[in-house]
Design a protein that fits this description.
single chain; alpha+beta; 5 strands; 20% strand
């Protein structure tokens, strides 16, 4: 099923549960950009279950005919939030699904007292960077993102 940009489609947005894991993992694997953001520990069923237990009210799925076509995972530490994953199936892009998911997550975060959100986007993912810019997310050039893997199964990145 290929959707057209202006074609009307019914879908709902609901909270993500661990029962959605297989469908979400399959969705993440529909695009190269999402696949390369995954790691075998944090994005495993156990890792996502742990994440959802900490963030039960800030992660959402877009669903049509029982099929998950978009997902956003957001969480916070009590003061700042991060968008860890935002993905819409390629067949359903350009239908404002990502915008609706992001808006729903931002609303939930604000409801939990969070006033600032950030996300990480690969520099070479031009469509995603354009999306985030359009949503009002500014590019921070005065920071270096640093990470350290405490588990040898998690790649450190480039």
């Amino acid at each position: 099923m290929i959707q057209r940009k202006n074609e009307k489609m019914e879908y709902s947005i609901r909270k993500v549960t661990i029962e959605d894991y297989d469908a979400i993992y399959e969705l993440w694997n529909t695009t190269e950009q999402s696949r390369r953001a995954l790691n075998p520990v944090d994005d495993s069923r156990t890792g996502i279950e742990r994440y959802l237990k900490r963030n039960p009210d800030t992660c959402f799925a877009a669903v049509t005919d029982g099929r998950i076509i978009g997902v956003i995972l957001t969480g916070h530490d009590g003061r700042r939030a991060i968008v860890h994953h935002l993905c819409v199936h390629p067949e359903f892009r350009r239908m404002s699904i990502a915008e609706r998911l992001l808006s729903k997550a931002e609303e939930a975060l604000k409801g939990e007292g969070i006033e600032k959100v950030f996300g990480l986007v690969f520099k070479d993912n031009e469509p995603a960077n354009a999306f985030w810019e359009k949503q009002g997310y500014s590019l921070r050039t005065n920071l270096n993102y640093r990470n350290k893997s405490l588990n040898t199964d998690i790649p450190t990145g480039e």
